[in-house]
Amino acid sequence: MKEAAFEAARRSIEKEAKTVAELLDYLDKEAFGAAVELLKNAGRVMTSGCGNSGIAAKKFAHCLCCIEKSAAFMPTGEAVHGGMGFIGRGDVLVLVSRGGKTAELLPMAEIARKRGAGIITLTENAASPLAALSDVVLLLKNIEESDPTGLMATSSFLAPVALFDALLSALIVETGFAGGKFGLIHPGGAVGEKLNARKQRQT
Fold this sequence. Notes:
CATH class: Alpha Beta
Helix content: 40-55%
Shape: globular
Largest sheet: 5 strands, parallel
Strand order of the largest sheet: 2-1-3-4-5
CATH superfamily: Glucose-6-phosphate isomerase like protein, domain 1
Number of domains: 1
CATH architecture: 3-Layer(aba) Sandwich
Number of strands: 5
Strand content: 5-15%
Number of helices: 9
């Protein structure tokens, strides 16, 4: 391996660590709290995004299911072909769009608004169309991609993932979700084995 390649790898880790750490500097407590309240009280949660933003949104939907909050990731193509029927009044739509102008997400936000669902958007652009349609905007700032080209979705992928994990942690506390419940819905893999072994020891 070229020495320059290893240095590029090190710089990538440094930049990504910096991106996540800086979330603490600008995280808006009021907006974050409003997002937590919406999610806590939601009957169902739909998440969406395109590309790597969509992958981050899909992970968040899965994590919500893990704490017994009904959630689903909706691909944009399916959303405008009837999928938006999943949510209505009392539900929440969570969108991720770095520029806040993603054309595929705008119809979803407009439909959710008409159906009375709350909208949370993660974006860098507070003046964007998606931000204008949202009840809560969680801003991401000063993101510098970590790869040598500065074009790959690297740091801009990790930032929403970290913010989603922060929302998950807050929801666990707010809802009183007990880790012991996790064994029932997560019997597979090493985590399932560990949780069920612990349950057997307790009985």
